[in-house]
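Page 47, continued from p. 46.
Same chain as before, 69 aa.
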Amino acid sequence: MEKQEQTYEQAMKRLEEIVTAIDGGKLGIDSLSKYLKEAQTLIQFCREKLYQTDQDIQKLLTPDDQNEA
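Result:
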């Protein structure tokens, strides 16, 4: 089964759900560990998305003839 690509917004929404669950204080150790691992993966995904978006924006804002001065 092919995994559908997750969007930044979906990842952030899931992170918010995880934080709410953790803040509720009613998670067992096993659940807490699972949530923290998922959050770590989502945070890494979001960092990579933000970095790639920043790189794309920098390319768009940098003139092609920058080195011709």
